[in-house]
Write a structure and sequence with these properties.
Pfam families: Costars (PF14705)
Number of strands: 4
InterPro entries: Costars, Costars_dom, Costars_sf
Shape: globular
GO biological process, one term: regulation of actin filament-based process
Protein name: Costars domain-containing protein
Family: Belongs to the costars family.
Length: 91
């Protein structure tokens, strides 16, 4: 799986595990993602996928690197799609 495919899978998993926010974004904690069995089977390097998604401004979280245990309560935000993309999805 290439980076783009992994980021797409990450978005799907955040939708599945996270909670929808009023602004259209989704939030999930790192611990929920890291400890989920399905995510463990999909992602060889979850932290690397998160960093790639952050670099592309798809997700947001504080700091550069998340570590199991230490950062389990850190919220990861999947940003809402741009308005034109959201309109295309709803059509």
């Amino acid at each position: 799986m290439n980076v783009e495919e992994e980021i797409q899978k990450l978005e799907e998993e955040i939708h599945r595990l996270g909670s929808l926010q009023p602004d259209g974004s989704y939030k999930v904690t790192f611990g929920v993602l890291f400890n989920d069995d399905r995510c463990a089977n999909i992602f060889e390097a979850l932290v690397g996928t998160l960093r790639a998604a952050k670099k592309r401004k798809i997700v947001a979280f504080p700091g550069e690197l998340l570590l199991q245990g230490v950062h389990d309560k850190v919220e990861i935000t999947l940003r809402p799609p741009p308005p034109q993309a959201a309109a295309a999805v709803s059509s």
